[in-house]
Design brief:
Length: 397
């Protein structure tokens, strides 16, 4: 085990994290490794933290990827601990795998490869068998085919742009599209009004949504019954978004021609028409580096300045440093919290230089720069206010 020296930040890594990311923790201020005790933050990829005892010292979690279903996000929010992720850092890697799968389906490459693998090299009629067999694998070209995209975030927008450049028609649906995503979305994308509309009108359907309670089994038997015969479904988003049993039935009935995904469950394994990869979506050297760099920078900004960007359970808050004395306060989003905190600081003789407060659902977060040092008794007093989840004094470096 490795103890963190006073005045340094301790970072516990739970997976192999790309070195280009970890190098961004300055060696003179950070202790980083898999054996760090009482860490200030944890950097994780796929390690399951749901049943893990997370030390009380932890102030932040950084997920070097997009999905956070392996992290107890709600419980950490109750402790005032932000969970950061790296949305978009692996977008190009996932997009490329989506199109690899799309080409495989359009040209029937998987059954064609299996046919060739089964041929006998010693067969004198080998060449004739190759020529006779190829007619069974005739495919289609992508131009003028319609691609439906459910989820128009960073990955969905990249997929849409590439599909349009390939000559495809694109129909997209996302009820929660952000302003940034809307700006990135190619003008040629036709906006659908529902998932059902996408299911009914397209030749290929690709899913790019997070796994939430509202998206679990988003693609079910009812929706699969809506598709045109021989539709191709792709899921490189999350396991659980698609009802696997319903997919197997749809394949058997000819509603789906192929189901290509990154999640080879027991239900899907060896099922006819299923092409499953071992969770390769973000498995490129570039994506792993991009995710690590992005999340390390976000965790550093939070630990050193209290700034929050891309936290899945906190609002985004940025405030330029105007004083060497800063407080970072996480609290329940209820009335009169700012008033109580301001009164407590005023009673301690602290003058507020500048303050930013933002909320997100039930969570609120405040950065306060004051003109003089903050005594430990003041921090304890603020922490004692009902609804305050965490308080940190952040000195200037």
């Amino acid at each position: 085990m490795v103890e963190t020296a006073p005045g340094r930040f301790g970072i516990l890594t739970l997976n192999q994290i790309a070195s280009q990311g970890l190098k961004r923790f300055p060696a003179d201020r950070y202790t980083v490794g898999k054996a760090v005790t009482n860490p200030d933050a944890i950097i994780v990829r796929s390690h399951d933290m749901q049943a893990m005892t997370i030390p009380a010292s932890v102030k932040a979690i950084g997920r070097a990827g997009a999905g956070t279903n392996n992290i107890p996000v709600a419980e950490l929010a109750k402790r005032g601990v932000p969970v950061f992720n790296a949305p978009g850092a692996n977008a190009n890697a996932v997009k490329e795998l989506v199109f690899a799968a799309l080409f495989m389906a359009a040209r029937n490459l998987v059954p064609a490869l299996r046919y060739v693998e089964a041929l006998d090299a010693a067969d004198p009629g080998l060449e004739a068998r190759v020529e006779d067999g190829k007619k069974n694998f005739a495919g289609v070209e992508l131009p003028q085919r319609t691609l439906g995209i459910v989820g128009l975030g960073a990955i969905g927008c990249l997929v849409a742009d590439t599909a349009i450049k390939l000559g495809m028609k694109v129909v997209g649906f996302d009820p929660d599209i952000t302003v940034d995503a809307a700006w990135r979305l190619p003008a040629a994308v036709r906006r659908a009004h529902s998932v059902d509309e996408v299911m009914k009108q397209t030749d290929f359907i690709t899913l790019h949504v997070p796994l939430l309670s509202v998206t679990r089994n988003l693609i079910n038997a009812e929706r699969l019954a809506m598709v045109k015969p021989a539709t191709v479904l792709l899921n490189f988003s999350r396991e659980g978004i698609v009802d696997d049993a319903a997919v197997v039935e749809a394949l058997a009935a000819g509603k789906l021609k192929y189901y290509l995904c990154d999640f080879p469950s027991a239900t899907l394994l060896h099922a006819p028409g299923v092409v499953a990869f071992p969770h390769l979506g973000a498995s490129t050297a570039e994506a792993e580096e991009n995710c690590a760099i992005m999340v390390v920078d976000q965790v550093r900004e939070y630990l050193e300045h209290g700034t929050i960007a891309n936290a899945v359970n906190f609002p985004s808050v940025e405030m330029g440093r105007e004083s060497p004395y800063r407080l970072a306060i996480a609290n329940a989003n209820v009335p009169n919290m700012l008033g109580q905190m301001s009164t407590t600081m005023a009673q301690a003789g602290l003058n507020i230089h500048t303050m930013v407060n933002k909320s997100r659902g039930e969570m609120a977060y405040t950065l306060v720069d004051v003109d003089s040092p903050v005594d430990a008794k003041v921090i304890s007093a603020i922490a004692g206010i009902a609804g305050v989840l965490s308080v940190r004094a952040i000195p200037a470096a």
